[in-house]
DNA sequence: CGCCACGGCTGCGAAATCCGCAAGACTCCG
DNA sequence: CGGAGTCTTGCGGATTTCGCAGCCGTGGCG
C-alpha cells in the first residue's frame, strides 16, 4: 500500500543513475509516460506506448517501476468538501528546534494530508482535512500545538476550492 | 479532458438529487468506490465490485458518472521536484474588491496548480509550480502582483515535500 | 389503478487489455 | 573480449473492459 509519496526509500536494486539528492533519474520517455497518466490515470498501456513510442510491455514495466519507486502514484482525487469533509484548513507553523522532527510528527496524523517545509515566515505548511469544526479545533489545538517545539500556528480555514490540477508537463 | 475539478459544470442530464450548494448527492456505495480508487486508481472494476457489493458493470457505470460529473478524477500524481520543476511556492494573497475575480484569474495561469479562498490573514492561497527561480519570480512579481485588486502577497518557497496523501475515508 | 418512462442493476458474450515469460539488443565496465 | 545488468520486444493465456439486452423498483400522471 503506497500511501506516502516521498517517504518510500526501498533502495533495493541500485538504479541507473541518481542525482545527488537521492531522487531517481527520469528520462524524457518516463516524463512523457507520466504526462499521459496525468491526463488519464487509467489510460491503457498500449495507448501510452503509441504516444511515447514504446512497446506496451515496456510502458508497463516503467510504470510499475515508477510506482514502486514512489515517484508517482495513480489515485482518485476529489474535492474533500464533496465527499463529506466539511472543514479544511492550511496551517502555518513556526518551530523552535528540529523542524524535520515536527514535520515527521505531522506526517503521522491521519487528518494531515499535506506537509511541506518552507522558507518564509512559516517553517511548515500543513493541510488538514476534517469532518467538522470540532474535529478541526481538536486537531489544531490539542494535537498540533501540543507537539513539543511548536512555537506558534496560524490557520487558514478553506472557504472554497477553486482549482486543483496535476498536469505540469502539459504546457 | 477533465483538467479542472471544480470548474466543470455541464449540468446536462438532471441528476438524482443535488444538495443546495450544487454538489451531487453521494451515497455510501459511491463513497466506498471512491475509497477503493484512492488506494489504487487502476484497481479493476470487478475487484471494486466485490469490495463494495456491486456487480462489475454497476461499478463501471458509477465510476464513469463520477468522472463525468467532475466529482472525482483518476490521475497520476508526483512530487514536482522529482519531475524537474525545481521551484515551488505557496503564495498568500490579500485582495481589495472582488476576491472571486482574482481567484478566477489565478485559475487561468498554467503555473498555478492550486487555488483556494480562505478565511484568515490571507484571502487566497495559491500554489505555484515553476522550473526555476527566474520563472517563479516572474510569475509572482510580474503576473500575480500585476493583477488589479491584489493588495499584497507573501511567498513561502518550498524546501521539501514531506507528505502528500489522498485517502480520507481510509481511516 | 393501470400505464409508462426512467434510472440503476445484472448477466452475458466479444473485444481489448493486462500480465508473465523468454529471447534479443544495448550499454557500461573490468 | 566477456559478462552483468537493464531495457526492449514479441508472444500466448488469463483477466478485464466494454456494449448491449433484459429486469426491477420508483415515481409521475391520466
Automatic annotation (TrEMBL), chains A, B:
Coiled-coil residue windows: none
Record has Transcription as a keyword: yes
GO MF term list: sequence-specific DNA binding
GO biological process: response to amino acid
Gene3D superfamilies the record matches: 3.30.70.920, Winged helix-like DNA-binding domain superfamily/Winged helix DNA-binding domain
Cited Pfam families: AsnC_trans_reg_3, HTH_AsnC-type
GO annotation, cellular component aspect: cytosol
Region (Disordered): 1-23
Keywords tagged on the record: DNA-binding, Transcription, Transcription regulation
Record has DNA-binding as a keyword: yes
Domain HTH asnC-type: 26-86
Biased composition (Basic and acidic residues): 10-20
Domain of life of the organism encoding this protein: Bacteria
Record protein name field: Transcriptional regulator
Amino acid at each position: 500500500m503506497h500511501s506516502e509519496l516521498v517517504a518510500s526509500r526501498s533502495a533495493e536494486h541500485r538504479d541507473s543513475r541518481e542525482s545527488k539528492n537521492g531522487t531517481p533519474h527520469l528520462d524524457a520517455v518516463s516524463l512523457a509516460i507520466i504526462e499521459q497518466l496525468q491526463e488519464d490515470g487509467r489510460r491503457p498501456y498500449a495507448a501510452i506506448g503509441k504516444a511515447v513510442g514504446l512497446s506496451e510491455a515496456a510502458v508497463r514495466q516503467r510504470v510499475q517501476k515508477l510506482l514502486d519507486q514512489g515517484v508517482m502514484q495513480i489515485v482518485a482525487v476529489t474535492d474533500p468538501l464533496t465527499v463529506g469533509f466539511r472543514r479544511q484548513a492550511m496551517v502555518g507553523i513556526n518551530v523552535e528546534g528540529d523542524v524535520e522532527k515536527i514535520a515527521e510528527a505531522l506526517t503521522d496524523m491521519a487528518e494531515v494530508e499535506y506537509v511541506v517545509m518552507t522558507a518564509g515566515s512559516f517553517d511548515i505548511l500543513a493541510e488538514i482535512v476534517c469532518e467538522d469544526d470540532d474535529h478541526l479545533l481538536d486537531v489544531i489545538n490539542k494535537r498540533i500545538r501540543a507537539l513539543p517545539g511548536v512555537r506558534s500556528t496560524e490557520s487558514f480555514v478553506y472557504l472554497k476550492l477553486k482549482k486543483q490540477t496535476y498536469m505540469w508537463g502539459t504546457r
